[in-house]
Amino acid sequence: DRKFGLKVQKAEATDIILSLARRNLGHHLQLTHCLWVLRVCASNVTTGTTLGINGAMELIFKVITPYSKRHVRTVRAAIEALAALLKSKSNSRRAVNRGYLGGLLRLYQDWHHNDVSNNYIYIRRGLLLCLKHITNIQLGRETFLGSRGMEILFTSIQNCLSCKNLDPIITTVTQILRKCHPKEPLPVATVRSSYSFPLPGNAKAQPPCDGSEGKWLKGDYESDEEEEAEKDLDNEDVESNEEDYDLETDVNKLRSRPVLDRPEEELGQYEAMCPELSHNFQELESESEEEKSLEDRTESLPSTSSHLIPSATSVKHPNYKQRSQSVTETGPDPGEKDFEVPLQSWIKKEKCRWDPTDEKRDIAEAAQGADSCEVEDPARSHVLALRPLPKDTAWYKKMFHPEYEASINPNPGGKLESSDVVTNLLEKHQGDIPFHSPCFYIARAKCIKSIPDYKDLAFPDFWGHQPPPYSKPMLERKYGVQRDKILGDVRRLVQPDDVIGRTVFDLDEPSHSSPGAPGCLTFFSKFESGNLRKAIQVREFEYDLIMNADVNSNQHHQWFYFEVCDMKLAVPYRFNIINCEKFNSQFNYGMQLVMYSVKEALQGRPHWLRAGYDICYYKNHYRCSAAAGAGVRGKCYYTLTFSIKFPHKDDVCYLAYHYPYTYSTMMSHLDILEQNRNPKKVYWRQQTLCQTLGGNLCPLLTITAMPESKKRDDLEQFC
């Protein structure tokens, strides 16, 4: 009966129960029963507060003793009653002010040290629950830190992690440690995106916020729970679930799917863009019946525009220009000049074979196309450099002919800008990647506008990739991995001796980073669709990574895609992406990131493969200030952590949230699709719907089956 405590208080029986307990301090059987009643009464926070005012906690502390095998039942009842009393925040404040928190820590140490046979787990966990409730208030957390509580609890469970019977203790300690870990802002100057863009109607781009959002504002990071209303948390499991929902790993307990963000009725406004969804084809059929006699009189196709099959040369559209072998796109802005990307007569055969001679010609033509693009509108085109390849000299000798070796710079900082190098690479390309041509990609990428003005090509986007050679099951979750990772983060605070804390990549301040340090990985992300803002080396083989927010924003961090090189072979590297925002993630339930190895690709295995182990996702100690968090005070960040063993030494690898698909890839994909379609079977029309805000074209495709015959019924249904 959750109202039992209130009924006791209404009957003015609380003083009687306390009086009985005081009288029976020397009679442990009767005292145990009194303590049980006190625990039930204190389960109601209001009654528990009254009991605390009347001296219940002082009484209980006389009963709780250091480790002893005598009167264990009474000690357990006293600890459980105290834990119930400390659910009241006013009782917790009173306990802290009277020095009980330090006493509880000493009692826990004593019981933990002496209970070598683990016979009194319930007493040890009861003491931990008392600490957990006290640290629900800010004063309790500060006192806990000042009493070296983090070090005491962290050290106490190091020899317990392998014993599943001690899971209740380990779980409670983990909850206390991460709750009391000092909250910090992200280690960036501002959480606003590194990139800004002037929106239409604004005189200039929204400037980055000043440094005030990164300053330590205690009120933003520590919620002052002293002024919160008392909450009746009668159910310990409910409380635990609310605080640590991100630790949930049972797939059946995943949060329910979110509802639609707007009613389905609102989607009706888009019907005009999809007339085939609402067009009444029955009317066409009835009209065709009336005109069927016309069909009998003529065998040829009527030369009326309503019955003509629209084609690339017949369709007239305000934003459409006749397409020949060169794909010519126009945008709605009359001030923008057209640009051309030559599409050579490259026909994909039944089984795609690569012709080095044709490919060299294509490269030259593509380069000429890029040059003509540059002449027409210099703002549209720019010089692109392929990202560096693996630098192992012996590996180069094996992969390339000796005469090419001199043209390839194994320096990791050098860029492969030489056309000879690209040509040599393309000669190694097997041409067996569906709907991908590196030269088409380069030609397209040179004319793409980007806010950061990318100058580098990521190797996977240039080279292409094949589907994985085999299916891979969901990753089986290792028992206790999430808890181990959280304790690893706590170790940085309590045992900081091996923490390096060196910035090795910084998109905002490249001069402040120290890439290329001995034994350190090298990171890069300034290419199309890349996202990595900052990399910090925590330990020798561990790195904290920070993603960049959406443009003109200070939030929305989920996608990551970056390059990493200078790795050692068969060494487990741990990566922590520390500014995730979602409450939970499929990474907790078997999902893996994807990895692309340049060495593997050049050896004939260009695959994005699922990679990583010890993967988990959990709430960390980083917080966002109200100024930076769109008015949300104390917004939590989450960590996605994973470990990887790279397949080769000194390789160049790319890691991504999912298979990358860039805008340049899409445009070159469309070029190749149009070249390889069968015009007798597939109708294809590509128009420009508009230009994006960034100045790139937004294609509008019309694709359907060609009519089966030139009969009126087939033509009308086609139309």
UniProtKB/TrEMBL annotation:
Residues 222-249, 284-293 have a biased composition (Acidic residues). This is Cytosolic carboxypeptidase 4. It comes from Cariama cristata (Red-legged seriema). Belongs to the peptidase M14 family. The keyword Hydrolase applies. One of its GO terms (molecular function) is metal ion binding. It holds the Pfam family Pepdidase_M14_N. It comes from the Eukaryota. Residues 300-329 have a biased composition (Polar residues). It catalyses: (L-glutamyl)(n+1)-gamma-L-glutamyl-L-glutamyl-[protein] + H2O = (L-glutamyl)(n)-gamma-L-glutamyl-L-glutamyl-[protein] + L-glutamate. Residues 199-264, 282-341 are annotated as: Disordered. PANTHER family: CYTOSOLIC CARBOXYPEPTIDASE, CYTOSOLIC CARBOXYPEPTIDASE 4. The keyword Metal-binding applies. One of its GO terms (biological process) is proteolysis. Residues 212-221, 250-262 have a biased composition (Basic and acidic residues). Its cofactor is Zn(2+). SUPFAM superfamilies: ARM repeat, Zn-dependent exopeptidases. The lineage of its organism: Eukaryota, Metazoa, Chordata, Craniata, Vertebrata.
